[in-house]
Amino acid sequence: MSGSPTFPIPASLQELESAPYNLLPYPNDFEDDDEAARAESFHKLIRVVEAGNRSLISNGLGLFEVPDGEEDLDAWNDTGRIQALYTLVRKSDSLAPATRTRLVKALCDAVHGLSEALANPGAVMASQTQQSNDGEEGGVGGANSFVVSQSFRDAMACHIYMLFTVMFLTESKEKLGKSLNAGTSSSSSGRGGSKSKSKSSKSKGQNTEVEDLAASRAACAEAMHHASLAMSEHKSRLWRRGVVDEAVVGLPCRIAYQMLESSTGVIARKASSGDAALQMIAATVDSAPCLLNTVVAALVDLLHTYDHIAPLVAELCCIVNGQVLATELLREIGRLDTTEGSNDTGNKASGIKNIAPFISELAAVRPRVVLSNISLLLPHLDSEPYIMRSAIVNSIGHILVREDQTLMENKDDEEGSDGESKDERHVVNMAKTRTSLFDILCDRTCDITSFTRGAALKVLNDLTEKQSLPLDRIMPVTAIAIDRLQDKAVMVRRYAMQLLTSLLENNPFMGMLNPEPYREKVRELEAYLKCNIPEEILKARDTALEEAKNDESQGERELHEIESAALAAAIADAEAKKEEEALSEAESTFLAKVRALKFASQALAFTE
């Protein structure tokens, strides 16, 4: 690898045999006369790597620091070490199990050692800081301006790439093995067998191999996770002026995608270290914003291809700092072309079927993010795929539950602040948003597809059970449920019946369905409010009544309308004052009676 001082990440492992690396498939002294000589040659290469690891652990970052003007003639990551790593990694599939285990351990130890050296530079940083302070009087920087040498960055890039290649080959082999096992199990399902002893011996050997493979995958994932965290937390120490090498920083993400592909369930997720994969991607996004678009494109492709990725990506959005990843993903989903008529209609339909659950999964864990970007998703309510419309309906349900809890918390804060309103404008805006979302939800109960109608009714049922259905929505929702009992789809009728049952069981009217007490209460409250109408409205009412009585063409109906209009104006005035200014004792009592009248009127309408 003479000539170039850097280790650029190659596009493939075979490129290491060309410039600027100029490696060989095997070292010149590699003996390949027979199997024994070949195995011994591989052991020698392993010992070279292990000896270098011991030196790294002993000396740390000092191995890579060379005084200015001196040539690094005894570099740690020299051509011999890189050649040994390349040969071992290139032939890792054909190595004996014990040799391959030693290779994996040596690579992981090297990556751990380099990550620890980056995190704890020790005396090297102290000496460079002292030199910087001596050379610049009154200069700033010190420990914060310390940057590792180029040789350390080369070694870090080389070993992370070698570890990435080993993990890539392992994950590819595991994926191929799963597909082959699925094919052989289906083809041999009808065959019988009498060779139980041979089968048991084979199964024991396979179990041992599976355990070794699982241990190897876990060790590699832990080392790569450690490296990604080190590069994220100490990027100012690793890269000059904090400008990262995207090819190096992106390696943990590239292997993390493959690990997530294998995380099809709880057991598979543990075996493929799915949690570590999520942490790698999160660390990369947090430390290298320049890779955000690349990560988003890869995640959307995973969502499009695999049906188990949606919960994993939603969990990832909770791990990443801020909302940028979730926002970009929602933006990409909003740009999806859901129209039919293209040549790949089947692939597009399956992709949308896999992507749609991500919307509801994200709304369940981060409802505020989805609410902030709901305008990107609402156009899909007019799209053809019903599963996308159903997913948006489910996400609206999660948002409404969360917003209801937030409103209740804000009301508690207002009550405990001695009358001082706390961000009232935000509360009002939230109430308007909830109204709009409820309108969308109620509209979807008449969707063209029975699946989406059923999803909307199910969401309304969940809101009712969680006491998140506003009082003024009880009657409209009840009317919707009654109407949907006539739906042509059995599933929709079943959800409508469940919604009606929940409305009856969770109604806020104290479990009493006799309308007479509520009718009497409405009369009593209306009489009180008419007697305590504010003076300005009272004067206007009396004037209008007097004019109506003097007009012979006016009858009892017109007089009653004037009374009702005056009462409605008084109620509207009381509700407006609630949002603007502190109320007197009389005004507070009047407003309380207005709320009681609304409650009693809703209860009367519900019970009748």
Shape: elongated
Helical fraction equals over 70%
Low-pLDDT ranges: 1-5, 415-422
Number of continuous helical runs: 26
By oligomeric state, this entry counts as single chain
Based on DSSP secondary structure assignment, what is the total number of beta strands?
0
Largest sheet: none
Properties at a glance:
608 residues, mainly alpha, 26 helices, elongated
Short description:
The chain has 608 residues and is mainly α. It is built from 26 helices and no strands. Helix content is 71%, strand content 0%.
Please provide a written account of the structure.
By secondary structure, the chain is an all-alpha fold. It has helices at 35-59, 79-90, 97-119, 123-135, 150-187, 196-233, 235-238, 246-249, 251-261, 266-271, 274-287, 292-305, 309-319, 324-334, 345-365, 367-372, 374-377, 386-415, 424-443, 450-465, 474-484, 490-505, 515-531, 535-550, 556-580, 585-607. Helix 1 (35-59) crosses helix 2, helix 5 (150-187) runs antiparallel to helix 6 and helix 6 packs parallel to helix 11 (274-287). It is elongated, with a radius of gyration of 35 Å. The N and C termini lie far apart (88 Å). The model is unreliable at 1-5 and 415-422 (pLDDT under 50).
Please render the helix and strand layout as text.
Elements: H1 35-59, H2 79-90, H3 97-119, H4 123-135, H5 150-187, H6 196-233, H7 235-238, H8 246-249, H9 251-261, H10 266-271, H11 274-287, H12 292-305, H13 309-319, H14 324-334, H15 345-365, H16 367-372, H17 374-377, H18 386-415, H19 424-443, H20 450-465, H21 474-484, H22 490-505, H23 515-531, H24 535-550, H25 556-580, H26 585-607
Helix pairs in contact: 1-2, 1-3, 2-5, 3-5, 3-6, 5-6, 5-9, 6-11, 9-11, 11-13, 12-14, 12-15, 13-15, 15-18, 18-19, 18-20, 20-22, 21-22, 23-26, 24-25, 25-26
